[in-house]
Amino acid sequence: MKVSPMFVVWQKGKPRIVMDQTASGINSSIPKLEGKVKYDDMHTFGQVINDVMKEHPNEELILFKSDVAKAFLNLPGHPLWQLCQVVTVDRRYHIVRRLVFGTQTSPRCWCSVSALLCWFGSEKLGIAGLHVYMDDFYGWDFKRNMIQFHSQSRPNRQVQLLVFWDMISCPYEDRKQEAGVCIKIIGFWLDIVKGSISLTEESITGLVQAIQDFLTSSNHKAPLRNWQQLTGSLHWLLNVLPWARPALTEMYRKMAGKTLQFHNIPINGEVYRDLTWFSDTLQSAIGIRFVDAQAWDDNEADFVSWTNASNVGLSFVYAGNGFCYQVHSTPGSPVVDIFFRELLAILSALHHIASMSTPLYHLLIYSDSLDSVQVLNSLAVKESSHNSILLAIAGIILKTGIDFRVRHVPGKDNIRADLLSRLLLHDFKLQFPSYRIRTFEPLRELLLAQ
């Protein structure tokens, strides 16, 4: 018989009992894939709201969130599984018969039930736009559809959901059923008026502290379990800061192939650099606007630029202006590949455009580098040197709020940037006499420690 340690974790001033089934070895008997869950995210819900606002431009909308009480404890464990959930209280053995916090598969078991409830509400009860994240169900309604329920004015769709829960004896507390034009859902502020999703001050403070605690781990090492917990928290943050994804690349690389939960993993320079960037950027970043984020056509761009790179130079052009930089090789300097230079050209164009006095929002950049286009869509690279450029690009995007996209253009259609990148200034002037040519210097301080 295995006995799992039991302790109390305080969250937001409330005690939560946790059974540590990792310490007792019970979780190690569960295949890792059995505990994986795919959650709804804010991007999906933001797109739903965006579509509704476009379809009903003259309607006022309202958001709602409903919370199930004691989610895991609503589900009984299988009789054979209950025998594994042994705890001691006052030196006496007890069997815990419900699912608990601390079991690797509890989130997946609960999410299977909550997904079924969400599906029934959406498909059978007609609650359009209903989403769920663990025990938080959320959606939208027209503001004109407010009705009285439990002595409070609530959106009709929220009332439908709560009546359904009453019918199946799903527990909830009235005080946790919220509605409004700006409400907090899974730690994010959703503002239907501004059309934005942003972090709460509480979330920012907690994440910055978590990063600091991790980076100051004893002997610059932390157990795999701590790595997984931090990456999980930061990955959740990508709901509102998708451009922060490159800061997790090195962490996932360090964890790859490791399975021993309490095995210490060294915190190397790349991870320290990226997490420091994450912490600094987090406190000044602009959240996403779901009203138009990535929902615009290329021909609606506020600004368009073309970039290119060669072995001898970098360039970018726009609206009668051409900029070039001659690459200087010095003995002993690091050798960079053409992919690095293509990304550096894009970064240089972005930094130049973002520094203009005239504000812009939709920026479109064309590049004839398919690798660069793919990387800036996936936000994932294989080399640390390339990741430093992604972080620099992300830093500009997150601080300015520019909605930035890169498209591929065939080399034959990128002749202006191509001529400048190869420093063929005479040929460029012959073909494009109206263009003004200037030089620029890539800002190396944007590349962090590289």
Q: Ends: how far apart?
A: 53 Å
Query: How much strand?
Result: 15-25%
Estimate the mean pLDDT confidence: 89
Rounded Rg: 26 Å
Structural class: alpha+beta
Helical amount among residues, as a percent range?
Answer: 25-40%
How many structural domains does the protein architecture include?
3
Low-confidence stretches: none
Shape: globular
Number of strands: 22
Largest sheet report: 6 strands, mixed
Strand order of the largest sheet: 21-20-17-18-19-22
Task: Figure out the total of helices.
Answer: 13
InterPro entries: DNA/RNA_pol_sf, Hepadnavirus_pol/RT, RNaseH_sf
GO molecular function: nucleic acid binding
Write up what this structure looks like.
The protein has 3 domains: 188 residues, no CATH class; 91 residues, 2-Layer Sandwich (Alpha-Beta Plaits); 150 residues, Ribonuclease H-like superfamily/Ribonuclease H (Nucleotidyltransferase, domain 5). It has a 6-stranded mixed beta sheet, sandwiched between helices. Strand 1 and strand 2 form a beta hairpin. The chain is built from 13 helices and 22 strands. Helix 5 runs antiparallel to helix 6 and helix 8 packs parallel to helix 11. It is globular, with a radius of gyration of 26 Å. It is α+β, with helices and mostly antiparallel strands.
